[in-house]
Specification:
The protein is 12% helix and 56% strand. The chain is mainly β and 171 residues long. The N and C termini lie far apart (40 Å).
């Protein structure tokens, strides 16, 4: 452990929440929506007229505030891995997500809202584009039932998704 990390740890543990002027965050009803995704899912991604299989495992961590995801799939003979962190930012009143993967060194950062009536999470943000430059992205995740989710990813102002993924909970 570096000296700076040790100092920060000691100060954090000894100071308590009062020094920071607010109580520690606690999971709310918005986090329950994320928690429902815990488990292992099989994925079928469609892009460019091709289909790719994979898995993703989700687990609520960090005091129940963050849904942590680990994806592993095969993109036509090339192994693809990704990690996600998703939460609800009570200050912004928005869901937030961070995505990193084995094809880029730059994270994708998204934020958006959940429509309870349609069970749809829509987020927008920026991240690496296909040309390596930053691009605008829009993600739409629709919960069909407790064991099925349909995900579509759009680049820029695209009307058709760049790719889709169907998630099926592994039993």
């Amino acid at each position: 452990m570096t000296r700076l990390a040790a100092v920060v740890l000691v100060l954090t543990l000894s100071a308590g929440a009062g020094v920071w002027g607010q109580a520690p965050a606690t999971p709310g009803p918005e986090h329950a929506i994320l928690k429902a995704k815990e488990g292992t899912w099989e994925t079928t991604m469609k892009a460019g007229g091709m289909e790719f299989k994979g898995t993703v495992t989700y687990k609520m961590e960090l005091g129940g505030l963050w849904l942590v995801g680990a994806m592993d799939s095969d993109l036509g003979g090339q192994r693809f891995t990704g990690r996600s962190l998703d939460s609800y930012d009570a200050g912004k009143k928005k869901y937030i997500g961070i995505w990193v993967d084995s094809m880029s060194t730059h994270p994708m950062v998204m934020e958006g809202t959940y429509d309870q009536a349609t069970k749809t999470l829509t987020t927008v943000g920026e991240g690496p584009g296909m040309d390596g430059k930053n691009a605008k992205w829009k993600a739409v995740a629709v919960t069909k039932d407790a064991d099925t989710e349909h995900f579509s990813m759009y680049v820029g102002d695209g009307k058709e998704p760049m790719f889709t993924i169907v998630y099926k909970r592994k039993k």
